Amino acid sequence: MTQARTHGFPKSTLSNKSKIMLSYLHEFHAGNHADILKHIALVQILRHLNAKDSPYTFFDTHAGSALYSLECASAKKTLEAEKGILALRDFFEKSGEGLSQGEIPECVRFYFEQISPYLKISCYPGSPLLERNLIRRGSSLFLCELHPAEIERLRENILGKKSLEENSIEKNEKIGKNDASQNAQSKKHCAVKIFHADGLKNLSASTPPQIKRGAVLIDPAYEDLGEFDAVTKTVRAVHKKWSAGIIALWYPILEGKKEQIKEMIFQIEDAAKRKNAHAEILRAEFFPGSESKKSTANLLGSGMLVLNAPWKLDSQLREALEFLCGAIYKDAAFSIRISKPTS
Question: At residue 263, does pLDDT exceed 50?
């Protein structure tokens, strides 16, 4: 019997290969330059979907725990947030008040408004919290996480009566717009379902969704070389049967995996163009520092590949990355490329 797709991710079992790919924990990297790029793009995609007065479906295949302490030992060990979101916060505190509205891109201001309440409690929100807080009333949000520890934290932070977010907010009356009551309202306004499963496999099994307007965020850890092939096959298959969906794929840029990244992007773009000649495909890459100064073990940068990219997303990301290069990343580079329909 074929399982119905209308209820989100179906239940799945974990393969032996999946079980060995669970060493990655995002708490070491939350709020770094890759998160800034990914979440600015994510927020703009959600705003695009919200512009139309109708519900939609949103999938997040690698949800993580949804909320990360910037004071924990893991964050202090890598200091990636200090060079990322905390540096942006410091810029806003020192210079933001004196800058005109036009000097800071609107998409950066809006993104910072979404995360600043969490920074006040020394936390950084993961994609699921941004999705839950911004998603339109009546829409459906499907979150998938495979890691056994992360899935429990995800359930607690998104659905729990006393999440880290709400407990911390109770101690800080000046939290701002996204307070606990507003977040509680968000929970009631959309259907949120959380699944302990392989996100790629379950995305394939769950698409096309009943409400076909929507998007998916895919951001694996890419710990294993096999993930590049799995992502390629999944995105191609999903786009083939859900051609109207916005597919946002995050990927790391690592010295030792450039060929795998190049091949993955080529295969996805080629299949997408053959399926839908009218689809806009956006590719944005950000390098926060000179590649020559980075070791092969470090993250040189990251990218976003977006199929059916929303209108103006390319110009919004260009403005955002230009701003970031001048504000907090002095030795940075980026590239924006969009493939537009030929007719």
Answer: yes
Cα(334)–Cα(40) distance, rounded to whole angstroms? 15
Report DSSP state, residue 98: G
Cα–Cα distance, 74 to 212 (Å, whole number): 39
Query: Which of 90, 64, 207 minimizes the C-alpha distance to 143?
Result: 64
With vertex at residue 123, the alpha carbon angle to CA 117 and CA 129, rounded to the nearest 5 degrees, is 70
Contact 39, 127 (CB under 8 A): yes
The pLDDT of residue 223: 84
Question: How much is the CA Rg of the chain, to the nearest whole Å?
Answer: 19
The DSSP result for 249-277, as a single string, is EEEEE-GGGHHHHHHHHHHHHHHHHHH-T
Burial of 81 (0-12, 13-18, 19+ CB in 10 A): buried
pLDDT per residue as tens digits for the range 183-209: 444 445 689 999 999 999 999 999 999
pLDDT at position 290 = 54
pLDDT recorded at residue 118 = 97
- Specify which residues 94 forms β-bridges with: none
| pLDDT, the chain, mean | 84
Three-class HEC string of 294-336: CCCCCCCEEEEEEECCCCCHHHHHHHHHHHHHHHCCCCCEEEE
pLDDT digits (tens, 9 = 90+) for 271-293: 999 988 888 999 999 999 853 34
Q: Strand, coil or helix: what is 126?
A: coil
Q: What's the gap between Cα 296 and its chain centre?
A: 24
Tokens read off for 206: 């769950």
